[in-house]
Amino acid sequence: MQSSTIEKNSIAERIILISNRYGSAKEFLMKCGINNYSLITDLKYGRIKKPGSEVLAQIVLGSGCDGTWLLTGKGEMYGSISPSSDLTISEKEKMENALTLLLNFDFSESRKGISEARELEIKVAEALVRLLKKHSKLD
Asked: What pTM was estimated for this model as a whole?
């Protein structure tokens, strides 16, 4: 007998957990700078199985969650700082979380098709270029 529950991957489940801390999924996505307002629904129903590295980086930067936790489930969602506390996560901490996310992301071609691994590498490179451009404008 087939289960009526839709199987989600663990990263999708952790993204949904983070989004539940906000007033609405749209509020969470706007905070993260993600324009796909159906992302959370798509993750819940398994329509999106593998969120891309750019989306993951935006979630780390926008929500301040720990990148290692988002990818692996190890550690705490926000480290020692909760988003509801009076302390705010600094831009430096957001950058460090995003860097941790990128450094721990498995780009190995042994687990993915060559084209998919290459596509992820390109997306990461594009995200880094945008990040560098943004910070060069701030200087």
From this structure: 0.57
